[in-house]
Amino acid sequence: MENNTIQFELVSPEAKLVSEPVKMAIIPGDEGEFGVLAGHASLVASLQPGVVELHGEQDGVEPRRIFIAGGFADVSADGCTVLAEEAMLVSDLDQSSIEQQISDLREDLDRAEEELDKARVQRRLNLENAKLSAITGKLAAFS
Amino acid sequence: MPSLRDYRDRIKSVKSTRKITSAMKMVAASKLKKAQNQAEASQPYASAMAAMLARVAKNVVVSDASSPLLVGTGSDQKHLLIVVTADRGLCGGFNGNLVKAARVKINELTTAGKDVSIICVGRKGRDLLRSGHSNKIAQSFVGIFGTARVEFADANQVTEYVLEQFEAGAFDVCTLIYNEFVSVLTQKPESQQLIPFALPEVAEGEEEPEEEGQVSPYDFEPEEEKILDALLPRNLGVQIFRALLDSAAGEQAARMTAMDNATRNAGEVIDDLTMQYNRARQAYITKELIEIISGAEALK
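Structure tokens for the assembled complex are given below, as produced in the milestone run.
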């Protein structure tokens, strides 16, 4: 194939965040991470909170890492579209405030009495934990 | 007969009212622009979601085992209405028309013997529905439209509440009533059934044309059914968010139109008053002249 890039789009309910050709996108699927290259088989997948890695056209450039709070991916011949409810650059995440959030949420979880509240707090806790591991994963990669 | 001073005071007060309404019109116009931009920005997500739903729906056989969000609970006794209005007034018939439409729907359902509960989004709808239906209001969300923009998180609050209530079996059918943004001049009260959700129909012969060797069948990860189960609540959120955005844009448009009318009316009132003021002044001058002349005549 002459063209070895794939059109990647990341949309949130509030805006279209990314729309560019990439060489490879690594996407955190519910059943494990998967990479999408040009010519990937058509696929619909649900995603878990995690990091989307975009590898640009040039080699040797650090991939862009974007945290998403779960969503869906739609891969077709036209390109790859990721629907995310919330998305931000991993470099914009602040480790100390997330750790603070996690400890707050843990306390809330202990205090929550109703099942519904518990489930809600647990969901947010999982999300913050995923954020934290997105950062620490990156730090580990540097050292 | 009012004195000249009375006319002057009235003209002054109408003029300051006109200043306020024309300022409100301009504020509404700029907010409308923002709301429209936001509605536009949310379009890609909504259409991608719709495309994905259609794709999955094509591959799923709807059965009794499917998610109750899709097939319903098997009953339609308990209805939940989500009534979306503005938080603030002074926007013409925007809130009134919507509440009227909601009341019609409520009456229809209650005469059919159904149980009705209401979620109010927006302060005005809550206040208006309180008279007559206060016992049916299950929950109100107020202040969503107060800030500069409607956040998806705001819509999510509503969505989460609806889903929790649905899981708890508080209702069988959920209908959204909101003002659809047709144009700047028209907002139409619209009702849309959210639960059970009607999947987009795939008409026969409308299947994507199969290019040779190009179109590969879709893989699903995890299975179609599981994806559908995960997609449906998300879709609910998207639909509610879209309705909120439509309503926010409609509110500003309605306010802009209302304030434009008010400004024009104020102008007409000022013209009328100025005319009357001038007449009164003329009458006063004429009267004085007559007095002077008749005084002079009397001295002869």
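Residues 139-143 of chain A have pLDDT under 50 and may be disordered. Chain A has two domains: 6-90, 94-142. Further analysis is deferred to the final report.
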